[in-house]
UniProtKB/TrEMBL annotation:
Name listed for the protein in its UniProt record: UDP-N-acetylglucosamine transferase subunit ALG14
Phylogenetic placement of the source organism: Eukaryota, Metazoa, Spiralia, Lophotrochozoa, Mollusca
GO cellular component: UDP-N-acetylglucosamine transferase complex
Subcellular location: Endoplasmic reticulum membrane
Keyword Transferase annotated: no
Keywords annotated in UniProt: Endoplasmic reticulum, Membrane, Transmembrane, Transmembrane helix
Source species, domain of life: Eukaryota
Family annotation (InterPro entries): Oligosacch_biosynth_Alg14
Record GO terms (molecular function): N-acetylglucosaminyldiphosphodolichol N-acetylglucosaminyltransferase activity
Transport recorded as keyword: no
Annotated family: Belongs to the ALG14 family.
Membrane topology: Single-pass membrane protein
Pfam families found in the cross-reference section: Alg14
Amino acid sequence: MGWLLLCVVVTLIFLFIIIMVRTKKQQTRIRDKRTEPASVLIVVGSGGHTSEILKLVKVLGDHYSPRYYVVADTDTISEHKVREVEKMRENSGRSSDYKLFIIPRSREVKQSYWTSVLTTLRALAFSVPLVFKLRPEVILCNGPGTCIPICFAGLLMKWLWIQRTCIVYVESFCRVTSLSLSGKLLYHFSDSFCVQWPELVQKYPKAEYLGRF
């Protein structure tokens, strides 16, 4: 049953990609980085991941707009915090052009890796159509499992020449000497890979140490 579900999901994803490529021509437009804002898709995790990513959101300038947030369906707390942050931006007179989207969670805490394969595929089936529709110029994430299908969809857009999406990965503060599973998976594929401890740069030379966030 599990293999049947896997085959169905993969088939649907590739059918969707073929339809998108055939029915929509790639739009090539050079964006003026000095004046035009860049759309950003922000993957919000839960707990500490949420706190850290929202700290970054608070310092994002208005040139990152609109902001698309992706939250797991079982994480109502993070959804509430996102709305609070955007309300603060609005009250301070800053741009608050944002939308929030809910997708299935890829992996629950302590969920086995074998069963997480199926839940990740389910999340991927939701993520690919969403990312292809939004076509963000930047994907910003910091390690929750939900970011894997989102980043994979972003990579697909680049590989298919649909949208040049820049993937920015910021490793969690709690990762001092080793990367998280998400970090290990995205280390070779992200456009910018940031860490918060200098020890990690010694092990992973592609990483950029930018201090604490």
